[in-house]
Amino acid sequence: MDCGILVSKTVLLLISLIFWAAGAALAYVGSFVINSYKTFDDFRVDKYTVIPATIILGLAVVMFIIGTIGCCATLRESKIGLGFFLLILFLIFAAEVAAIVFGFIYKSRISGDLEKPMIEVFEKYNGDNSESRAVDYLQTQLECCGVHNYTDWLKWQWFIHNHTLPLSCCKANITTCTIDHPELLNKSGCETKLEQLLQRVLIYAILVILGFAIIKFLGMLSVCVIGCRSSRNDYQPLYA
Q1: Which end of the chain is more exposed for a tag (fewer CB within 10 A), N or C?
Q2: Which CB contacts under 8 angstroms, 24+ apart, belong to 178-185?
Q3: Which residue ranges run through the membrane (predicted)?
């Protein structure tokens, strides 16, 4: 068998396997969500909460179908099947390229988009509401204090009324967190640390998407190679 055809078919079969693996993963997630819903059915959980799981299972079926089409079209060397598989790969490739472009655009805007909403949430801190829980979680996980630094709290209502900082601002487990002991405070601001975290996550996501986009591009090239050889009747089935 021609080396180019063998490599092209191997790439397409690998891509089909990736679709099957993605379908299996989505099926597992969807089934897990539905089983979790059934476990708590006695609490009369809203049945609309199952809709996302149903959508995930639907996507899993689509992934299995696409993988099967790619595998069968490759082994049987079907022009129609390969053409349809090429269209699917192109659409997914275009979506991945768009995601990469938007990822780079958003990466440059993270800093400007964080400051205002963070200040609004921090200003609502009262120790009991949902904003307080979000702030405490953020400051504890990122080991930070305030938006820019711990001095931000001096102008917010929590400090004005209580003359203390949230316990999540301090490094150690203490009963009272004050500015009298700056050595116990997390002096870094949360905006900078959250920005760094989001940028790292975004970079990882872009790299993963880029990897899949390269695979899709190789898949499209493989379909073209097989298609060109097919018109000359100059190839054999993979299992020949």
Answers
A1: C
A2: 179/150, 179/154, 182/150, 185/145, 185/150
A3: 12-34, 54-75, 82-106, 201-226
